[in-house]
Predict the 3D structure of the following.
Amino acid sequence: MNTIIIGLQWGDEGKGKIVDYLTEASDVVIRGQGGNNAGHTVIAKGTKYVLHLLPSGILWDSKTNVIGNGVVLDPIGLVLEIERIESQGIAITPDKLLISDRAHVVLPFHKELDAAREAALGDDKIGTTRRGIGPAYADKVNRCGLRIADFLDREFTEQQITRRVAEANEVLARYDLTIFDAKQVIEEVYVAFERLRPHISNTIPVLHEAWKSGKKLLFEGAQGTLLDIDYGTYPFVTSSNTTAGGSCTGSGLPPMAIQSVIGVCKAYTTRVGSGPFPTCDEGLSEYLHGLGREFGATTGRPRGCGWLDTVLLRFACMVNGVTGLAVTNVDGLDEYETLQICSGYDIDGTIHTLPPADRKAWDRAVPVYETLPGWKSDTTACTEFGQLPAQAKAYLARLAELCGAPIAFVGVGPDRIQTLVVA
Ligand code: GDP
Ligand code: IMO
Ligand code: MG
């Protein structure tokens, strides 16, 4: 069975941990969208790994990991990431990591353009990760981006970079941001490209061959449904399709290659960056931050925390075709006396069970809550679903009922082994 792992909230749901867990029974792990704005944390055998561009399957021996055509790839960032993960004792050989020659490239000035755009937006800023994701995808759609394959023709690439640097510098000068020297950009990017060259190939036939020969494929989503460029809380979103369809367009595999979609969500809600967050709760944020939880894996920013929002989850299950839920961080609620679940939004006196498209309506959305009893006990040592306290099971059952999808996995801690399978 080939499976998509997708985030159902605003990212950081624990996708990396679930992908890592499922990699053991898979052959190929594929990233199809996003870039190094992603930060996927995996804790295995007591060691913590944070992955940005590398698929989380990289931690396992004898698995193939593919960075697909839909990813925007920062070559300098990827080389640094490979070095960091290798220094943690993980070998990253060319047969273990394949990079699509169709992936678009994030160049150093894209990051600075990202900062310029945020500065221009002032108080309305998106709160991006400043990894150049928006400007790189904008160049792709505007048909002036550079793809990995272009780097094989150095003369052409030098011309293109020189032109793009001149254009970028005009914008950057207006915001007193770093001005780039095209020659230096070319040198730096080519050093990284040469390091990555053994990993580059046309990954589409490789993936098709794997599919046709019955290998098990696992698609690793980045970000989450509410950050999707179409379905998210626009404009406070990222610049790619983070939903299930992005796995196909981002890899070259067709929809019929996929049989299941595991939607990952936390037992509560978090969000980093700007934008609407109806169930945000100061008390819960302070509580979780006090436990040292909920700081961003990419930028270190504290994530806003709030109650479980099934308006978002219901919509996310719908647009992704979720066949099973992976509910992580259940242990985060272990000490709470009573818990709230948002089942609808009251917008101007009407109850909505799906999120609005109108950006101004979000500001008027008042969550309608159901209150459930907490379980007030430590779940982190549970090794089977049946060992969870009755109140935790009831909370999860209500979550599943409101979302319209069954629970497949439950996370009770950050370690690979703290994953419960629901039969
Ligand atoms: P991703 O971007 O979706 O892969 O998620 P992140 O790694 O950015 O954030 C998820 C955070 O929750 C990380 O710190 C994980 O180690 C942690 N985590 C994942 N699942 C669980 C869980 O079930 N319990 C606890 N306590 N932490 C978890
Ligand atoms: P993972 O894969 C959480 C957020 C940023 C910002 C918005 C746009 O770890 O779940 P961008 O840099 O993409 O232009 O920023 O999206 N964002 C994420 N939030 N997890 C992520 O990835 C994110 N990637 C981007 O904070 O609000
Ligand atoms: Mg993350």
In short: Residues 154-174 form the longest helix (21 residues). The CA atoms of residues 372 and 394 lie 9 Å apart.
